[in-house]
């Protein structure tokens, strides 16, 4: 399992800075071997919205809010790297989906996301935000339950050590010849 913990640029960053961040993140993701399970998690400062009819291969039917500019970047990243936004796939109250409350407007947003490879969607059993976690932050903790099946370790079977054939040593003539040979060799 490869975990990437990120902090995405806020909406105050320039377009160039956001583009650079998502470009670098895409390069990092693409360098993770395809056989590895992958989770990209953190504060993306992105709202991916709930347009699952258009982005159904990336977001589930349980997103919240409206798509913003960073959310568009996240969806494009997911499309390019075959990822999904796992915390949009699970039903629950709106409060169990949102992770951050705007200090001025008081509106709640789903900014903290867990992205996983689309092929591993069956490994995510549940995802939700946890507002009761005491983490000294203005964001709610996002928890995902994953079902991971450890890969089997194949043990290399050692070759059997060659065994001495001592059956003929029961014969006294053979035993005497062997003893004579050993004495000649050892000098």
Helices and strands in order, then pairings?
Blueprint: E1 2-7, H1 15-30, E2 38-43, H2 69-81, E3 83-85, E4 100-101, E5 108-109, E6 112-117, E7 124-130, E8 141-146, H3 172-186
Parallel strand pairs: 1-2
Antiparallel strand pairs: 2-6, 3-6, 4-5, 7-8
Brief digest:
The chain has helices spanning 15-30, 69-81, 172-186, and strands at residues 2-7, 38-43, 83-85, 100-101, 108-109, 112-117, 124-130, 141-146. It is an alpha+beta fold and 187 residues long.
Write the element-wise H/E pattern from the N-terminal end onward: EHEHEEEEEEH
Q: Based on Cα principal axes, name the global outline.
A: elongated
User: Count the strands?
Assistant: 8
User: How large is the radius of gyration?
Assistant: 30 Å
Beta-strand proportion: 15-25%
Q: Alpha-carbon distance between the termini?
A: 63 Å
Unreliable stretches: none
CATH topology (level 3) name: Deoxyribonuclease I, Chain A
- What is the CATH class name? Alpha Beta
Q: What is the number of helical segments per DSSP (H or I, 4+ residues)?
A: 3
What would you give as the CATH superfamily?
Endonuclease/exonuclease/phosphatase
Question: Which structural class fits the helix and strand makeup?
Answer: alpha+beta
* Overall number of structural domains: 1
CATH architecture grouping: 4-Layer Sandwich
Percent helix, as a range, is 10-25%
For the biggest sheet, the summary is: 4 strands, mixed
Q: What spatial order of strands do you see in the largest sheet?
A: 1-2-6-3
Q: Overview of this structure, please?
A:
With 187 residues, the chain is an alpha+beta fold. It has a single domain (2-146), classed as Endonuclease/exonuclease/phosphatase (Deoxyribonuclease I, Chain A, 4-Layer Sandwich), CATH 3.60.10. Helices cover 24% and strands 20% of the residues. It contains 3 helices and 8 strands; from the N terminus they run E-H-E-H-E-E-E-E-E-E-H. It has helices at 15-30, 69-81, 172-186; strands at 2-7, 38-43, 83-85, 100-101, 108-109, 112-117, 124-130, 141-146. The model has no long low-confidence stretch (mean pLDDT 88).
